[in-house]
Amino acid sequence: MLVETKARVGVFSIALQAYLPQFPQLVPEFEAQYEAFKKTIPDTVELIDGGMVTTKEQSQAAGDRFRAADVDLVIMQLLTYATSYNMLPAVRDLNVPVVLVNVQKLKAPDYANTDTPKWLGELYACGAVGEMVADLERAGKRHAVITGVVEGGDPEVQKEIEDWCRAAQVRRRFRDTNLAQIGRPYPGMMDLYIDETNLYHRMFVYTKQFDWEKMWAIADDITDEDAIRAKAEDILDTFDIEGGGTIEKVWDMAKYVVAFEKWVKDEQLGLVASHYDGFSQGIAGKLDSMLIPAFSMLIKQGTACAVEGDIKVAMAMSILKTIAGTGQLSEMYSIDFNEDICIIGHSGSGDADISEKKPTMKIVPVFHGKTGGGYLTQFYPPAGPVTYLAITQDRDGHFKFVTAEGVNEEGPIFTFGDTNMRTRFTCGAREFVNRWSEAGPTHHMAAATGRHIDTILKVAKIFDIPCEVITR
After folding, report:
1. What is the spatial distance between Cα 229 and Cα 143, in angstroms, rounded to a whole number?
2. Distance from first CA to last CA of the chain, Å, rounded?
3. d(Cα 262, Cα 250) in Å, to the nearest integer?
4. Is residue 391 within 8 Å of residue 315, measured between CB atoms?
5. Beta partners for 179?
6. Where are the beta strands (DSSP E) in 140-260?
7. What pLDDT, on the 0 to 100 scale, is given for residue 143?
8. What local confidence, expressed as pLDDT, does residue 371 receive?
9. Strands 206-210 vs 178-183: parallel, antiparallel or unpaired
10. Residues 86 and 55: beta-carbon distance below 8 Å
11. Alpha-carbon distance 10 to 66, whole Å?
12. pTM of the model
């Protein structure tokens, strides 16, 4: 990623203080279990260690550390039975989900040879989980439960922990990076209009406004020919260019990509939404003609870039790029009623990582629906599972996710320069369009290869916003 961020995850374990003087052997047992548990947290996140908590005072100290670190998520290991006062002080002042990990050390008891300390230390599938959730509910805290076993390894537990950490990465990315709005949304697309102050309050994303006059001059100071040449080679490695590509042919484009990369780093940009509706002449026309491939090069490096000034779909693209590795702008294109499939895609910048073959670049004299002409890019998502995500708002400005999973199929696609996919949904094409449209998702959505609704639901819980699942 051009701008690196790392989620901060608060981790602690709890046990009941009353057990420890009764059964001193539990202390080293629990300490070893907690140390092993911390190793299951992926190194893709920053672990904020709250320690092993057995008293209210220790829980408060853990909460102080979590609050000072501004954690994105809390993961709590239940070592044995513990009362909820061990948990609540650690999370009371936080507005993030609490994931309760209820992992038993041994797969099954040796009934005849199990005494009380062995039961409490290695075989307690924690009866305190219900107590914890009841009190989290009363405290208004979001929560989730993971149950499993340590002995022999538990891939499902590990998958869930890693999934939650991926979801937490979205919150950190939104908090630590900015969104660049260049120009304004496409005129009249009122579904795209947004209150940037409300966006900051509800989704943590701060919007930096840029005028096109500033963008036209962005490459004026780029003089490092070695850097430009290297970027030109990167563009040629990324795209097949109609009519053949040379370093000289993409030199100006590479110069702007170098400038945009510097701009992204200087401004700490994780998202960009842009639209130009002026007269594409002179330097304005030059930049406008190459924005699509230039922004595609930024998407490849993790900065979501959306056309038509759509901030909400830039957010959706960023979420999918963060959790799934791909994030492609798309919208409903057409329905093949004979095949019962939806044709879904979009013109403009896209994600090279979603393309199973080398993306293509071609020059067109006219961009449909906007001024000027220039380079179009087409990407080729593979056959197989695909996930769509849209972000919309209700009448009160609250955000909502709308998501669906389908399967991309082989077959003919449009070849006029736009990325498009043939997606089959379990509910059928006609019913999908009805359900998706009734959810009011705006006309844009992001796409990623694979099935990611389970992770999207976790992201929604972290942001405390609803998520409507259309079909899986």
Report:
1. 51
2. 30
3. 18
4. yes
5. 207, 271
6. 143-149, 178-183, 206-210, 240-241
7. 98
8. 74
9. parallel
10. yes
11. 6
12. 0.95
pLDDT of residue 369: 75
Hunting for tokens 């070849």 — which residue is that? 415
Q: pLDDT averaged over consecutive 10-residue blocks of the chain (472 residues)?
A: 96 97 97 98 97 97 98 98 95 98 96 96 92 96 98 97 98 98 94 96 97 93 97 97 92 96 98 90 86 95 96 98 97 96 93 96 80 85 98 96 98 89 98 97 97 98 98 97
Strand order in the sheet with 374-378: 240-241, 360-364, 374-378
CA 421 to mean position of chain CA atoms: 21
**Three-point CA angle 27, 76, 24, nearest 5°:** 10
Can you give the length of the chain in residues? 472
* Structure token pair of residue 228: 């430009």
Question: Cβ neighbours of residue 202 under 8 Å, at least 6 residues apart?
Answer: 397, 398, 399, 463, 465
Q: What's the token pair of residue 78?
A: 């239940």
Q: What is the pLDDT of residue 163?
A: 98
d(CA 12, CA 45): 15
Q: Which of 288, 259, 92, 98 is closest to 183 using CA atoms?
A: 288
One-letter amino acid identity for 393?
A: Q
In the chain, what is the greatest distance between 2 CA atoms, to the nearest angstrom?
A: 86
**DSSP-derived secondary structure for 276-301:** --S---HHHHHHHHHHHHHHHHHHHT
Structure-token pair, residue 129: 């989980």
